[in-house]
Amino acid sequence: MVNIGAASTTRPGQVGLGVSGLTVAYDGPPVLVDVSLGVDPGEIVALLGPSGSGKTTLLRSIAGLEKPASGSVSLGERIVSDHRVFLAPERRRVGMVFQDGALFPHLDVSRNVAYGLPRAERSSDRVTEALRMVGLESMAHRMPGSLSGGQRQRVALARALAPRPGVLLLDEPFSNLDATLRLQVRAEIHQLLVGLGITTLFVTHDQEEAFVVGDRVAVLRDGQIAQVGTPDELYLRPADRWVATFVGDANLFPISSHGETCATPVGTVPLSSPPGGPSEVLLRPEDLAVTDGDDGTVELVEYYGHDAMVVVRLDDGVAVRARTAADLPFSRGDRVGVAYAGSGAIVLPV
Predict the structure, then answer these.
(1) Which of 16, 126, 178, 226 is the most exposed place for a label (fewest CB within 10 A)?
(2) Looking at the whole model, is its pTM more than 0.85?
């Protein structure tokens, strides 16, 4: 069990993180292009994007493991990377947890955690304190090979926290865990980070994980920031079609009118704002109600326990996804009605 009470009393004041105009290239086209992002002191920002979008490269550039072609990185008031300055990773007060934990298999837990500390501090109370934070104080002398996947990731986190960094970077730290353990470890580490008040940038390609952990979410696409906002802002007001489909299920229909409503395969839908040009209307699955009727046929039911997702093939051939209550009375093959039940649909330019 993570010990927040003990941890939260030992951390110094945290600093904010600033990235401005960052461009990173290897031997080919840029991996990051003019990326700017700010993380407030104590804030957790999830960096969300598909594989190859540049998420890990951004983290490595902040940590000092990659040298950008241009742009700057600052921690609080201190610039750690720009066209004149490039501080080594050990001088940045940045902790990083990698996807696989990267523990030394020949060192026990305490020595793995101590490895990130200056030699003079390796025999201090820092190691015990860090292990107490992650609830592994009793496992100090265990070898990494004898630990579960979740325990190994918590050791990696303790190692990153032991030097008392100003900023913590997490690179998909739960992706190698099975589903049940992933949820448990994620909840524990999220609770710990909130208790510590540590400035955190957290990389994931999982939309649900980003929305659960992040105070805000930055969506990265092809090396550029597509949108930054709170989880509800991204979900309810996506910047464009790509963001809308990436952060959740979306039913998208072209708009042929320019008024306050539009015709769709599920009927007339009120718009939150009139379209200003070629546009599509976004209907989230929870905006659609499935009822007794004769609009289409249930093609698929995905049951999640707390709710269900229903795919209905309408008679005009269009398939729509609707989120319903868990006690849905319909099954595959049933004839149903589908209607819009929201208050005003979002319009996206095309």
Answers:
(1) 178
(2) yes
